[in-house]
Amino acid sequence: MILNWLLLGVSATILIALSLYSMRMAGDKDESGFLVANNSLGPFVAAATLVATGYSGFVFIGSPGVAYEYGSLELFSNSFYTPAFLVATLFFANYLRRKAATLGSRTIPEYIAQTHSDGSAGRWLRGIVAVIIILLLSVFLVSQIKAIGLLVSGWLGISPTAGALLITLLVIGYTMFGGLRAVAWTDAVMVLGMALGSCVIGYVVFVQVGVGELIGRLDAIDPALANPTSGAPYGDSPASAVLLLPYAFLWAAALPFMSVRFLAIKKDVSMARVGIWVTILGLLLNFTPLAGLYAKAYYPDLPSPDLAMPTFLEHGVNPLVSSVITLFILFAMKSTANSLMHTVSTALSYDLRSALGQRTGFTTTMTFNRMMVLVVGLCSFMGMAYMPPVMILWLGILGNGTLMASLFGVTLCSTFWQGNSIGALSSIAAGFGVSAYLLLGSDIGWVQGPLYGCVASAVCYVGVSLATRRAVAPAVN
C-alpha cells in the first residue's frame, strides 16, 4: 500500500505540474487556450489524447467485464476500435478542423449552431445541444467515476467511495487550470503507460498461462465462452460484433469530447501522421479483454463482472507489476474523466452562457470556466454515490450511444449535405428518443440501439430540412 500511495503521489505531482505549465502557456487573454488548446496540438499529442480518451475505463474495466460475462467475442469486438478511429482521423477530422477554423468555432455546440443558423435560432440550437451534452455525458462521467472507485479501493486499501472522491478531486485539479491543453498533454503521458499495461496483460495470457490452457478452462465452464454462439451483448449473431466498426467511427467523429480534439490540432499538421500514431497506440491497447477471460477461467464466481480486471491484477501478476498496471489503468480512466469534465463544463460555462447572450470580462470568464469544472466533477461524484448497481459498460453506452445518435445528423450528415435549423432540431430529438428507448425499454443489442438512433437522426435531418424548405419557398417567392 505504501508503494501504491507513493506511485499515486508521484503521478499526481507530474499531472498537476503539466496542468500549471499548460495554464501558463495558454494564458488568460481569451478562452481559446482553455477550450481548444490555442490550436497547438502536434501529431503525437493529438493521437495520444484521442486514443487515451477513446480507450479508457470501458476498455480496461468494462471490456474485461464483458469478456468475463459473455466470452471471447469481446476480443474480436475490441479490435474494431483502431480502424474506426483511423478512418475518423483520416476522412473526417481534416474537414471538421478546417471548417471550424473558418467559422471560428471553439466547441462542437458552437460549430453545430454556426453551420445551421444564426441569430436567435442559432442560439436555441446551440443551447439545446449544450443541454443534451451536459445530460448524457454526465451519465458517462458517472460510469467512469464508478470504475475509478472500484479500481482504487483495492489498490489503496480504502473504500470505493473514498477512492472515487480522491481521484475525482485530482482530475478536477489538473483539468480546471489547464483546460484542453492540460487534458491533451496529460493524456500523452498517460497513454504510454496504458499501452504498456495492455502489453503486460497479453504477455501473461499468451506466454505465462498459454492459450491452450486458458481455452481448456473456459470450455470446462461453458464451451460458448471460447467459441461464442451468439453476439451478446451486441446482438443475436456473432456477426453483430462487426457493428462496433461503424459504432466506434461514430464514437470518434460525433461525440463532442472526442471530436473537439480535431479542432485543437495545428493547422499545418498532416492528418496522415496523426493516423499513424493512432494506429500504433490503438493496436497496443487491444489485449485488455484477455484479463476478463483469465478471471473467468480461474475465478468464475465473482459477484460482479466488473471485478474481472481487479481480480486479474490480484492473482495474475506479482504485486509490484500489479501496482504499476493499476496505475496505468487509472491513467486510462482519468484520461476520459478529464475529457468529460472539460466538455461538460465548457457546455455549461461557454455554450449555455453564449446561448443566453451573457457577456463577461475575460478574467471573470476564465474563473467561471474553471469553477464549472469543479461543479461538474463534484456533481458527478454525488451521482455515482447514489447510482443503482448497473454494468459500467452499459451505462457508458447509454450516455455515449444516445449522444452519438442525437448528434449524428448535425455532425456527420452535415458533412455531405447541409440541412437547416428545423431539420437539425428534429434530428437531435429523433436520435435521442430512438436510442434512449431501445437501450432502456427493449432487449435489443447495446450497439444496435444507438445505430438505429443514428438512422432516425439522419432520416429526420434530411427529410425535415427538405420539407421545411419546400414549405417556406412559396412564401419567399
Characterize the structure shown:
Helix 18 crosses helix 19. This protein is 80% helix and 0% strand. The protein is built from 22 helices and no strands. The C terminus is likely disordered. The protein has one domain: Sodium/glucose cotransporter (Up-down Bundle). With 477 residues, the chain is mainly alpha-helical.
Which key features would you list for this structure?
22 helices; globular; Sodium/glucose cotransporter; 477 residues
What oligomeric assembly is this protein in?
single chain
CATH-level-2 architecture? Up-down Bundle
Count of β-strands: 0
Radius of gyration: 22 Å
Q: Report the β-strand fraction as a percent range.
A: under 5%
Percent in helix:
over 70%
Order of helices and strands: HHHHHHHHHHHHHHHHHHHHHH
- Counting H and I runs of at least 4 residues, what is the number of helices? 22
Outline, from the CA principal axes?
globular
Give the CATH H-level superfamily.
Sodium/glucose cotransporter
- Average pLDDT figure: 85
Kindly, what is the distance between the CA atoms of the first and last residues, rounded to a whole number of angstroms?
Answer: 76 Å
Structural class assignment: mainly alpha
Major sheet description: none
